[in-house]
Amino acid sequence: MTFRRQRSLIPSLTMTETESLLRLLESHYGLTAVKVIPMKTVSGIVCDDDSRWIWKEARARDTEQRFHAMNKIQALLGESGISCAAPVSNGTGLYLSTIENGEKKGYLQPWLAGHHVQLENRQERLAAFATVGVMHQLGQYVSSDIRSVLATASLESRLVRKYRAMTEAWNVAIHKLPELRAMEIHVFRSMSRVLEGLSRQPLTGKSTFCHRDLAPHNLLFSGDGQPHISLIDLDQAGYDLPFLDLLQLCNHSLHFSDLRPGDFRESLAVYNRNAPMGPEQRVWMSELLWFPDLLIRTTVEWVAYGCPEQGRDRVWTAATKERLRLRLLAEENVVSG
């Protein structure tokens, strides 16, 4: 496979585009913006009524049909108190709007309150696992047309692509960072363990609505006394088996905190109370956790960008965390009981 540079951050709007956006907000949404705040990939908007919004540039997969389905999901989750940043319709009843020059389409979504969840904080970590459990449980009960619109590639195919990408990136990575060589046996043994298990017994179960990009910056924590988790950046969301979300959340929990023996088990037990897993699902979750997802992502991205010097520490941190993760997994059967 050939590595491709990931999509670059969307540049800030030009002055002309900003002025066009302000007119669009007024004419299509009835909003009078008093401030436009450039962010990494979006623009934050503050209005004269103190409401706050996010303007995002549309991507190829962003369609009216997809956004309509996402709003159905938003309504379903909202009934159980889960907030998510789904697109809002404009005055014409559509979700996608075009800035006056006609070259850029985008959409508006609420700017939700809260700070990025801190997975090193036990309360916030457990609240995140509980919320994802509720989302997975509720997401099973939607119409077939919504499932069809939000269908995604299988988890198995995604893991195979990651394995192939890591295989190609690895020799380049260890040439630039020789210290990684000590991890080679463990990394490839872990990947092979999971993929060989999949070849013997494919994943089964009912798909559900999944975020599919559960990094801490896509979860917002708020609430005094009563914790509340909001979901943002749902660009990758769709119908999948729930294992991917859990794998991402577990690995990020370890990467951003120093988990102790028992923390994996506790987090997954909280999830399981909200979205009970059967015996076969528990076995598969135990196996999938061996897949070194974050180390793969970090290494492949570093190689794709030409192994910049400033990325060495990030890769080495991911490798260090991977060793800790493997040790924790070996010490306990994290989803038993």
Explain this structure to me?
With 337 residues, the protein is of the alpha+beta class. It folds into 2 domains: 15-111, Phosphorylase Kinase, domain 1 (2-Layer Sandwich), CATH 3.30.200.20; 116-331, Alpha-Beta Complex (Aminoglycoside 3'-phosphotransferase, Chain: A, domain 2), CATH 3.90.1200.10. It is built from 11 helices and 11 strands. It has helices at residues 15-29, 64-78, 122-139, 144-149, 155-176, 184-200, 243-255, 263-274, 279-288, 293-304, 312-331; strands at 33-38, 42-47, 52-57, 83-84, 97-98, 105-110, 115-116, 208-210, 219-222, 228-231, 238-240. Strand 2 (42-47) and strand 3 (52-57) form a beta hairpin. The longest helix has 22 residues, at 155-176. The two termini are 41 Å apart.
Summarize the structure.
The chain is of the alpha+beta class and 337 residues long. Helix content is 47%, strand content 13%. Helix 3 runs parallel beside helix 8 (263-274), helix 5 (155-176) crosses helix 10 and helix 10 (293-304) runs antiparallel to helix 11 (312-331).
